[in-house]
TrEMBL record, chain A:
Pfam family, one: SSF
Chain ranges passing through the membrane: 6-23, 43-63, 75-94, 122-149, 155-175, 187-205, 237-258, 279-303, 323-352, 372-390, 396-418, 425-445, 451-471
A GO CC term attached to the entry: plasma membrane
UniProt entry tagged with the keyword Methyltransferase: no
Source organism of this protein record: Bisbaumannia pacifica
Protein name, per record: Pantothenate permease
Any one GO molecular function term: symporter activity
From TrEMBL, chain B:
Recorded superkingdom: Bacteria
Record keywords: Membrane, Transmembrane, Transmembrane helix
Ranges annotated as spanning the membrane: 7-28, 40-62
UniProt-recorded name of the protein: DUF3311 domain-containing protein
Length: 485, 70
């Protein structure tokens, strides 16, 4: 009981600290839409680095990465691979997106698509899909926070209260301070995560095995299949490779990542952030150590849920003091909260600007739009919280489905950025066919060759775009010939 | 210089990507030799994360390092 009180005390102190930083960040710019949404397009290298880093490192990365290492072994390197490859997309697309946004006043993905292809419905559609993907994602962060609290405090703080506490803090600073609140808190939370991850990873392998090298030597003796691909569960190269590609290059289509390109103070800043981005992925290395450490520890009594391996190792096996457990809880909450803040912020903007903008709120003043966005942050967080309490299993399906659809925006976005000759009809046909193919492969049939369905869907998408472009060009040529004769 | 630059950056990105998936990671798919206490495949990923960073750093300095390209 005393132990649990210490853990709760440390964590509440941490939450109060984050809240303080987030509210203090409230600047002068927040009354304008550009200020609230994109930090006035003045965000510099350090803050942008931590914003983009924290977006990718969600509760899933913190708990799921060690879970993968424990359950599958080497296939967990998939997470290292895709996270370190994400900056390639930032390098290639970021500066152009930022420049277009500055020039034409874009704040969302839908803005760019609707303007470039001269189609309001297309922007509206991108907005709807965006909200459908972001809300389940936010729900998962909130549920993660609740579970962490409950497990780490031995039930002293129940699920509903833990989830509520963590996300009241998040909703408060996003409501008040917008992107600058997210930026400064993500700096604090990012440093917290990195420090805790390295401390836990190194000290767990030291305590249980006498060091990282000794740990891997023992795994090599007892269970060498975990240390190379296809791993303990037989993940083949085709799936491994295509999953890395979809996550690394499709990931930039997530609205909360893509829209941050608008907030950079220059294209040079985005390039610099992408240079350092692979270093953020080193955060995962110690978390993988913890998962690997679990392989031999739980060899006789396997865990029912692999993603509880970090919690079990810290709380039961390694025998840490409650102070360390409190810090672990704070670090894991940091992962959930820093991602959740971005998701709530982005979902609110997309909802107000892309979905309500061309329909319910036509011609609204900037003041109205800013306050509608703020209240949407609270509204959407509340909806996600209620979803987390109800815990519908269909949520993960919704997230997977919506994510598959978002990735299919890729050719459309490339067209808007670099290939002005791509027509509206062909990119729409491509996105439609790609999305349908993805949904069918994910939920009805199985994917050919065992590859990730997203890769097949993207290939189909690009093929349809190319064929449609070719056909319309041939049609145009024939038309102009008949007109001239 | 601009064309060569883009080709080289593209080549670097392609190499790093292929090193982390099939077929690049295939040649590193073994436990020995253990380096830094890590199985070779684990070390391979740590190494390529660093190679990716180093190459991008060089590309950044070449393109944005001077005063001309602000």
């Amino acid at each position: 009981m005393i132990d649990s009180l210490i853990i709760v005390g440390i964590t509440l102190t941490y939450l109060a600290g984050v809240l303080w930083v987030g509210l203090r960040a409230r600047g002068q710019q927040n009354s304008s839409l550009e200020g609230y949404v994109a930090g006035g397009r003045h965000v510099g290298v350090v803050i942008l680095f931590f914003i983009l880093g924290a977006e990718i490192f969600s509760a899933f990365a913190f708990l799921g990465a060690p879970g993968w290492a424990y359950q599958h072994g080497a296939p967990a390197f998939y997470i290292l691979a895709y996270l370190s490859l994400v900056p390639i997309t930032i390098w290639a697309l970021g500066p152009r997106v930022a420049a277009l946004g500055r020039e034409r006043g874009y704040l969302t993905q839908g803005d760019m698509i609707a303007d470039h292809y001269r189609s309001k419905p297309l922007g509206f559609l991108a907005g709807v899909i965006g909200v459908l993907a972001l809300v389940p994602y936010l729900t998962i962060q909130i549920a993660g926070a609740g579970l962490l609290f409950q497990a780490a405090t031995d039930g002293l703080v129940p699920f509903w209260l833990g989830a509520l506490l963590a996300f009241l803090v998040v909703a408060a600073y996003v409501f008040c301070s917008g992107l600058s609140g997210i930026g400064w808190t993500n700096l604090v939370q990012g440093i917290m995560m990195i420090a805790i991850a390295w401390f836990l990873g190194l000290s767990i392998s030291e305590r249980l095995y006498g060091g990282v090298g000794e740990m891997f030597a023992q795994i090599q003796q007892a269970a060498p299949e975990y240390l190379t691909l296809p791993g303990a569960t037989g993940m083949d190269w085709g799936y491994f490779s295509t999953a890395v590609l979809v996550s690394a290059f499709g990931g930039a289509m997530w609205p909360h990542l893509f829209m941050k390109f608008y907030s950079a103070d220059s294209g040079k800043t985005l390039r610099k952030v992408s240079v350092f981005y692979p270093l953020y992925a080193y955060l995962l290395v110690p978390l993988l150590f913890i998962g690997f450490a679990g392989i031999l520890v739980f060899a006789d009594t396997p865990l029912a849920r692999a993603d509880t391996v970090l919690l079990r190792m810290v709380m039961e096996v390694a025998d840490f003091s409650p102070w360390v457990i409190g810090l672990m809880l704070s670090g894991a909450l940091a992962a959930a909260m820093s991602t959740g803040a971005n998701l709530a912020h982005t979902a609110a903007i997309v909802l107000v600007r892309d979905v309500a903008g061309p329909t319910l709120m036509k011609g609204a003043s900037e003041q109205t739009v800013v306050s509608a966005t703020r209240w949407s942050v609270l509204g959407l967080s509340l909806i996600a919280y209620l979803f987390a309490l109800a815990n519908p299993a269909s949520l993960v399906l919704l997230l997977l489905g919506a994510y598959g659809l978002i990735v299919q925006l890729f050719p459309m976005v490339i067209g808007a950025l670099f290939m002005p000759r791509l027509r509206r009809a062909s990119v729409m046909a491509g996105a439609l066919v790609g999305s349908l193919a993805y949904l069918l492969m994910d939920f009805v049939w199985s994917s050919p060759l065992g590859w990730h369905a997203g890769v097949w869907a993207m290939l189909l998408n690009v093929l349809v775009v190319a064929v449609w472009q070719g056909a319309t060009r041939a049609g145009d040529a024939a038309l102009s010939r008949t007109q001239h004769s | 210089m601009n064309k060569t630059y883009h080709w080289l950056v593209g080549l670097h990105f392609t190499l790093c990507t292929l090193a982390m998936i099939w077929p690049g990671a295939l040649i590193a798919n073994r436990i020995e030799p253990m380096l830094l206490g890590l199985p070779f495949l684990f070390f391979w990923y740590i190494l390529w994360m660093l190679v990716l960073f180093a190459g991008m750093w060089v590309a950044f300095v070449v393109r944005h390092g001077g005063r001309h390209h602000d």
